[in-house]
Design a protein that fits this description.
The chain has helices at about 40-50, 110-115; strands at about 1-5, 10, 15-20, 25-30, 60-65, 65-70, 70-75, 85, 95, 105, 120-125. It is an alpha+beta fold. The radius of gyration is 13 Å and the shape is globular.
Length: about 130
């Protein structure tokens, strides 16, 4: 199993949900509906890219089998070196987000299908 972190823009609608895959936990740094500041995100990114988990204080989590908002995920075009889905311990994205925009986002459910057996997904984005 692998530990990943997502570094992107994101927005969720609590009425549009998906199910967290069994064996996976999605960990958030801010309460649902709140923004993660750039300053906090950069610190968490650096910690996770160097393999230091959890990278910051976890606010809440969703575990396998639970419903989670089916977030829209899109590229951090203003910070391209920090945008993507990364394995913990790496600063090279496993999944690039450059083709995703706010008008044409990646859905969390589709991201779950692209990940290789995620054990943990750290959410370095707005909740």
């Amino acid at each position: 199993m692998n530990k990943y972190f997502l570094s992107s823009h994101a927005a969720g609608d609590p009425l549009d949900t998906t199910t967290v895959p069994h064996g996976c936990t999605v960990k958030f740094y801010v309460p649902q509906g709140e923004e993660l500041s750039n300053e906090e995100a950069f610190v968490i990114f650096e910690e996770l890219s160097h393999g230091r988990t959890p990278g910051g204080t976890i606010n809440h989590s969703f575990t396998g089998g639970q419903l989670i908002p089916n977030y829209d995920i899109w590229n951090l075009s203003e910070y391209p070196d920090y945008s993507g889905v990364f394995l913990v311990g790496s600063d090279t994205p496993s999944i690039l987000l450059t083709s995703y925009t706010q008008a044409n986002p990646l859905k969390l459910s589709d991201l779950f299908n692209q990940l290789d057996t995620p054990e943990v997904l750290y959410w370095v984005a707005c909740a």
